Amino acid sequence: MDDRTKKKLESFFYFIDKFHILTILFVLVLVLFVLVRQNVLGLMLGLIFIVMVAEDVIKGLLKDGVKSEIKELLIGILIAIAVLYGISFLLNTSTPISAVVTCSMVPQLDRGDMVLIRGTDVKTYGTLYMPDVSVYDITPDARVAIGNMSMNLEGSIDIYCSKFEDPDTDPFCYEYRRNPEYITEYHGPLAFQYGICERKSRRSDETFEIPCVVSVKDVYSGQEISLYPHSKEGDIVVYQPNEGDLFSNVGDIVHRAVVTVKTKEGTYYLTKGDNNHITDLQIYMPGYGGNHLIPEKNVKGNVIFGVPIVGYIKLFMSAQFHMPEQCDYIFNE
């Protein structure tokens, strides 16, 4: 790079830094993104973030040269690793920090929150003792029953009905939309009962009713645990999805452990997002499969607290600019 070009770049970066243009622009767009929740603003934030990183790298190269910049980068990485290992040791978990990437835990945790995690025992709303049951019998595949009618399907009745343009054309979906309390969904020896939940808009006073899971029961013992509206009693955990499960495609999950399930193979957890109307076990995507109960060893820890907005750094770095439709609504309990 010739001296003339170098001086032009230095003058340009001096102007940018003097008036904090990129920082002010980033903060303004971030505030708008959080308030308005438009995807285009998320994309703009990602681009501004990339420009800020690129500016810092170029400034370092102009000032100290390539060798010095690489040296500083390596030192920064080593310090970050040391701090991470230190926090991991103190909090007794291999993953002390994570980010919330969806709105499935609203209002407790919002998209873009950075959470601190501690490895400890998990508390749930209740425990199903099923010592004679194998966890492998509890699968994403389901049998749905309404009166004397029944059918087998993948995932849940909710996922099944979502594929119809007009769900009322299917007798099961017709009942699901109008009388969900008559529907029982079996995942092996676990029976899920549906009911009506109320959702409200985060942008207005609009409210509406939707079907949702309200309880889960052990069909052998008859023991039943309510999931709505008591589902917020369990700990919020960060867990690694089972290999091959649907959620394994997106990395660690931040959801609530609502029920402990004691089986032949050990302790497992039924998990659910506070803002989801079905449990993780019931979520299914054609072509990608579903989810299973979470083994105790896959739980990385409990969420201690969340810091708003900071987690957006992870979202931008992984190009997750799209704001899910779910972020516009919340359960009204």
SSE blueprint:
Layout: H1 3-18, H2 21-36, H3 39-64, H4 66-91, E1 97-99, E2 114-118, E3 126-129, E4 141-146, E5 149-154, H5 157-161, H6 171-178, E6 183-187, E7 190-201, E8 207-218, E9 224-226, E10 236-239, E11 253-263, E12 266-272, E13 284-285, E14 289-290, E15 294-295, E16 299-307, H7 312-317, E17 329-331
Parallel strand pairs: 3-11
Antiparallel strand pairs: 1-2, 2-16, 4-5, 4-6, 6-7, 7-8, 7-17, 8-9, 10-11, 10-16, 11-12, 12-15, 13-14
Helix pairs in contact: 2-3, 3-4
Structure description:
Helix content is 31%, strand content 29%. It has helices spanning 3-18, 21-36, 39-64, 66-91, 157-161, 171-178, 312-317, and strands spanning 97-99, 114-118, 126-129, 141-146, 149-154, 183-187, 190-201, 207-218, 224-226, 236-239, 253-263, 266-272, 284-285, 289-290, 294-295, 299-307, 329-331. The protein is an alpha+beta fold and 333 residues long. Strands 1, 2, 3, 10, 11, 12, 15 and 16 form an eight-stranded mixed beta sheet that branches. Strands 4, 5, 6, 7, 8, 9 and 17 form a seven-stranded antiparallel beta sheet that branches. The protein folds into two domains: 3-91; 114-331, no CATH class. The model has no long low-confidence stretch (mean pLDDT 84). β7 (190-201) and β8 (207-218) form a beta hairpin. α3 packs across α4 (66-91).
